[in-house]
Amino acid sequence: MPRTSGYQAIPDILAASPTSRVLVVSSQTAPSSVRQAISAGAHGYVPKRASDGELIDAIRRVAAGERYVDPDLGAQLVVPDGTPALDPISERERDVLHLLALGHTNQEIGKRLYISVRTVDTHRAQIMRKLRLDTRAELVLFALANGLIGPS
Fold it and tell me: What is the rounded distance in angstroms from the CA atom of residue 64 to the CA atom of residue 121?
C-alpha cells in the first residue's frame, strides 16, 4: 500500500465507514502481526496461504458480526501449556500493565503508584520481556485478552 501500512489504514477505514468489517489477508503470520491488526480494529485475520474455502468461511463469519482468526495463527496467541498468562509478572508489574493498557503515560503511572518514571519504564520493559511482547499495542491486547481491562 502506498504511503501507509495496512495496519495504519484500518482505523481510517473504520472511521470513514463505521459499519464496515475489516478482514486482514496477509502474508505475515507472526503473532505480533495478528495482534497488531486486531488491536488496530480488524475483525479478522487470515494468511494468504489459506484455501479458497477457508477464506470464504472467514469472510462470511466476519460479515455476520463474528471475529475470526485463522486457527493455526490463533493457537500461537494462546499460552501453550495452560499456565495462567499473568503468572510470570509481579503484582506491581500487573498494576503497571493495567495502567499502561488504559492508556496512561509513564509520568501518570508514576504519580499514581508513587514511583519514578524510570521505575515505570523498567517495569514496562520487564513485563514485555516476561510476556514476550514487542509493542504497547500488544500490551493492550494482552490486557484485554486476560481480563485486566475491558468488560467484566
Answer: 41
- Confirm if 35 and 137 have CB atoms less than 8 A apart: yes
Amino acid at 90: S
Instruction: Write out pLDDT tens, residues 65-92.
Output: 888 888 877 766 664 444 456 668 888 9
- Decide: helix, strand or coil at residue 68: strand
Sorted by sequence, the CB contacts under 8 Å of residue 49 that are 6+ apart come out as 27
Instruction: Fill in the amino acid letter for 126.
Output: Q
Whole-number Å distance between alpha carbons of 20 and 97: 31
More confident of the two residues 80 and 17: 17
Contact yes or no for 39/20 (Cβ under 8 A): no
